[in-house]
Hints:
Elements: E1 10-14, H1 17-20, H2 42-48, H3 70-84, E2 88-92, H4 95-98, H5 109-124, E3 128-134, H6 140-146, H7 153-169, E4 175-179, H8 189-193, H9 204-228, E5 233-239, E6 243-245, H10 250-273, H11 279-286, H12 297-303, E7 308-312, E8 317-319, E9 343-344, E10 350-351, H13 353-367, E11 371-375, H14 393-412, E12 416-422, E13 442-444, E14 456-458, H15 460-470
Parallel strand pairs: 1-2, 1-12, 2-3, 3-4, 4-5, 5-7, 6-8, 7-11, 11-12
Antiparallel strand pairs: 9-10, 13-14
Amino acid sequence: xxxxxxxxxxxxxxxxxxxxxxxxxxxxxxxxxxxxxxxxxxxxxxxxxxxxxxxxxxxxxxxxxxxxxxxxxxxxxxxxxxxxxxxxxxxxxxxxxxxxxxxxxxxxxxxxxxxxxxxxxxxxxxxxxxxxxxxxxxxxxxxxxxxxxxxxxxxxxxxxxxxxxxxxxxxxxxxxxxxxxxxxxxxxxxxxxxxxxxxxxxxxxxxxxxxxxxxxxxxxxxxxxxxxxxxxxxxxxxxxxxxxxxxxxxxxxxxxxxxxxxxxxxxxxxxxxxxxxxxxxxxxxxxxxxxxxxxxxxxxxxxxxxxxxxxxxxxxxxxxxxxxxxxxxxxxxxxxxxxxxxxxxxxxxxxxxxxxxxxxxxxxxxxxxxxxxxxxxxxxxxxxxxxxxxxxxxxxxxxxxxxxxxxxxxxxxxxxxxxxxxxxxxxxxxxxxxxxxxxxxxxxxxxxxxxxxxxxxxxxxxxxxxxxxxxxxxxx
Length: 476
């Protein structure tokens, strides 16, 4: 039997502006990073390898420009979320709708008004928005003119953006998060940090300087939120992927620990504890990293600690120090090595429900602040049957097993606020730019070649998740 979820548990779904909205030139919106990333499997190599130029190539297809047209269809989509019984809807605000270039002095009224309409529609249906302030869509102008988050000036621009949205939406938004999957900058600096590494050997200094600027910006946002909206809560948002040692060899155990500290805990330590962790000092020394800080930065970080941890969980990661005998076989998108005990999705992401319970226990044991799973889901190829239904039993099985482990973690004593399944409606994949990598409870008729009617259809999982929410996790 499923474990009882606490009263007021925040069930819902999650999306990001750049992956659902479309309307990329409407309402005076400026160009953002997602707008210049082409669709298809080449995207992953573009965002993880040196030398990307942030230009639109007329020969390529850019799915984020139309996405699933939430910009015009938000009322229809929110009605479907309400039909499932969502308590919350995690979404993001597109920075370039509010400040098209990022460095303007005054916000764009058309952009502000659009989110007013979205928030009002959500509240009409009794759904609380959970808003990510910056989700992989930095203004391209800030990338080209300032070098992304490498520039200290961007902290000022971000603070101006935050003030504008807090001022406008206080009373409409109770739950905020600063930077989506902030630690992804270690793997994909283009998406999170707003620059492309030009040479692999030069990545360390600019990457960690950019992180420092984001930590200061995040802390300032937290402080502003507490001052302007004392009733609201604001969290950080990280990717969490527990790291297992390949075997009981102490060398592999030590390697796994070091990988986990850097990837899973570094950013969270700064944002939750308010200080740089001790383990990072050796890493900085060994990689020749010397951070430029302004007077008072460490005080700002200390004063701007978050109220909760939002995190994404898709997979675990298995690590071996010497991989030379494994023929270079990579475990999944998180690198590492293949775990012989786990199956993988169609995209090679290893499926590990117990890893979610492990993650929840590790995070709560380290930080003792409320946790919020704001992304978890299965990207899969879905088939519309001839007579209309979409029987995504594989998705139901995936989510059921993960929700069961959430219940176990709550029994373990973990303070878990809520769960928003990723891509509650089909959207454009961030890592591959594909429509065919579907996550949703709601099917959107849109395909990798750009064809499709954008018609929405309820999948089998739609009705299943409705029952899960209505029974507060009892009926899985």
